């Protein structure tokens, strides 16, 4: 029997560095990192040869391990996926011997050569092996050498992720029927689930076919992009938060689109029920926030957030009896009619808030003096805001004053102790002419005039 390795008896002696890392120049440090990576890859190549030999000797049968992969996983204390990858790659890049003891090239000679040179890593080799395995049978019989050489060549300059995309393109090219069946199977396997958690948040889990996934990515990516830096400060949101905000903006765009299907003759809508007096107190002090409202998902929502949403919504007055059953229904009113929104967009752009760089999403019309407090629905009492700055204005309690028909934003003391007004909206052509007045040449008079 082959004696088992005792890992406790193994010692690794690291070669001392030729010079201190601290004393390296940037160029030397980069070259050293690159050199060490190459050395580690060459050592990995040697390890793969040893793993292949251990496979031939069936070392794992002398232990309780049921396979070479499980044996290697315990020997090296690595994840099962990593152990499987090493065993799989080792079997395809090992130097083979014939029955007569002659050395034969590996199954994947170009991949083996790139590994032995330290030009590619284990992940590159895994992608190549899997790419070859997924080829149709006739391609594995007649074109495997050409495909393997192509992938191994590009692996020297591509990341494993990019190489995987290339391998898939090759498979699609050589097995179009199989690729089509794969896409059909993905379509059949599509699913999306959503539920309301105990804390009221909605949890969404989805698996989309590649076509639907591409549509989703194309729509969500620009909506979830980081906001431009303001005074050198980057967007503080995490990637997950930006994706969530982008998804919210996507829903706003869908709700605002006339092409959405109608249910019961009405466009899709989010319904909120709240007492009118509580709505009026929505931005009061701590003890005057009012009772919460109720969403159409039967979850509660604070009066403060209802007031923000109601800035640009249809309001349907309704009289309820003691059991909250409707007794009378009034006429719905849109707080920002189409002609008012068009005028606001022309004056303010998508968002009038200072420094806003036209964020994506559906703009929201905000009343300077809220309509529940008697504010009029006209240009002198409204500004256009993006969803982010609409929430900022309500949460941080910014104030707005209209000066010569244009909005000025007054920050709260927590933002600016002096509360210096900041002009909002977008510049108009008349303002541009005023700014450039000094650069415009004086008109020339008739010939001969001085």
From TrEMBL:
Pfam families, per database record: DUF222 (PF02720), HNH (PF01844)
Keywords: Endonuclease, Hydrolase, Nuclease
InterPro entries: DUF222, HNH, HNH_nuc
GO terms assigned for molecular function: endonuclease activity; nucleic acid binding; zinc ion binding
Start and end residues of each HNH nuclease domain: 339-391
Region: Disordered, residue numbers: 410-450
Family according to the record: Belongs to the Rv1128c/1148c/1588c/1702c/1945/3466 family.
Entry protein name: HNH endonuclease
Annotated organism of origin: Saccharopolyspora shandongensis
